[in-house]
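Help needed: design a sequence for this.
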């Protein structure tokens, strides 16, 4: 992959456009390294508008690294709830604690030191080093990959072997010394605003005269698309257990997929198993409780990574004297009042279940069946 364009002209066209059109994003007000780091972590796998909402809400509660370090992991996950990929929140928390001990609550400027922090890989280290500290390091996210595939007619899928490294190498050649902060963000904004995945607005693109795909009239064919993998459907079941005015919730182990989050017990249906039987079995296996199913409440559908999850949601009651669980699949439990549910972070499916109940049948959070 070669950079075969007039580099000086490309840089000045792009930077001129960025001066006029940069998105007014909140972390661009001060380029505080904590803000830049937080934005980069939150925006991975998250749409910009949603990321900005979470970013602003987060800063109201955690204005600096020290406040993140001092929070409980439960509170961190509560503020992360709905963003998904919860390891990001857990790593941010661990990194903040390490920064307090090792760097006096500040982020190091050095790329290699940034890489040592939990949750910071080559992409985030490059983004923080260049955007917060203006170091001459290229940043290549999905937007930049797409722009380069079109600009330089990359005729291989972006996930193909060596393609990302090749694009980083090209971005390094284009980067003007001393202007990494603006240049990297200009490329990212170009991909986010103009060179979009569908219907790129080439007519107003500041670098159209350099773009091979546009000049050759094959923009639609770049990037090369890989065949989409079909979603894998899985069926799960869960039960809301109310006993003496309190709802049972348990906290998943830290090393689980949704580690640290809270949930109603439940799990995946076994072959030929009904959702009702699955809830009773899961309660028995995970908590030792014997429960009776009172009624089906709803079915929630949600998506994560390559899965489409159908979650059957029930209402149940305790069919034994003791309310003390023998936890087998969780690290902690609470019996909570209905209005305390919002103090805990839940995975998307369970939160949808709670929202559904609140909107359509709130009595089942307070009256036993
Ligand atoms: S001309 Fe079109 S395809 Fe090429 S970089 Fe600009 S927006 Fe993307």
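Sure. Designed sequence:
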């Amino acid at each position: 992959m070669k950079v075969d364009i007039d580099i000086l002209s490309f840089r000045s066209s792009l930077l001129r456009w960025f001066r006029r059109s940069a998105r007014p994003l909140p972390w661009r007000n001060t380029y505080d390294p904590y803000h830049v780091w937080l934005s980069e972590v939150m925006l991975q796998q998250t749409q910009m508008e949603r990321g900005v909402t979470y970013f602003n809400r987060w800063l109201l509660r955690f204005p600096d690294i020290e406040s993140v370090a001092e929070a409980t992991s439960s509170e961190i996950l509560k503020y992360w709830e709905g963003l998904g990929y919860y390891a990001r929140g857990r790593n941010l928390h661990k990194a903040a604690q390490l920064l307090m001990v090792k760097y006096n609550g500040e982020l190091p400027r050095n790329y290699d030191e940034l890489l040592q922090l939990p949750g910071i890989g080559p992409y985030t280290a490059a983004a923080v080093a260049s955007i917060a500290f203006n170091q001459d390091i290229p940043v290549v996210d999905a937007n930049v990959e797409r722009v380069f595939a079109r600009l330089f007619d990359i005729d291989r899928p972006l996930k193909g072997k060596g393609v990302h490294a090749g694009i980083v190498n090209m971005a390094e050649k284009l980067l003007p010394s001393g202007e990494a902060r603006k240049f990297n963000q200009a490329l990212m904004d170009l991909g986010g605003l103009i060179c979009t995945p569908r219907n790129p607005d080439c007519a107003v693109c500041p670098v159209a005269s350099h773009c091979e795909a546009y000049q050759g009239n094959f923009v639609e064919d770049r990037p090369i698309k890989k065949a989409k993998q079909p979603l894998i459907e899985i069926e799960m079941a869960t039960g809301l257990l109310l006993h003496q005015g309190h709802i049972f919730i348990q906290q998943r182990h830290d090393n689980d997929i949704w580690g640290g989050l809270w949930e109603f017990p439940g799990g995946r249906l076994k072959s030929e198993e009904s959702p009702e039987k699955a809830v009773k079995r899961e309660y028995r296996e995970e908590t030792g409780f014997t429960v009776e199913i009172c009624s089906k409440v709803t079915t929630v559908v949600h998506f994560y990574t390559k899965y489409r999850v159908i979650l059957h949601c029930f209402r149940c009651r305790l069919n034994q004297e003791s309310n003390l669980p023998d936890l087998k699949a969780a690290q902690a439990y609470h019996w909570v009042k209905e209005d305390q549910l919002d103090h805990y972070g839940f995975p998307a499916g369970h939160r949808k279940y709670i929202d559904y109940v609140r909107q359509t049948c709130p009595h089942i959070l307070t009256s036993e069946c």
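The chain is about 40% helix and 15% strand.
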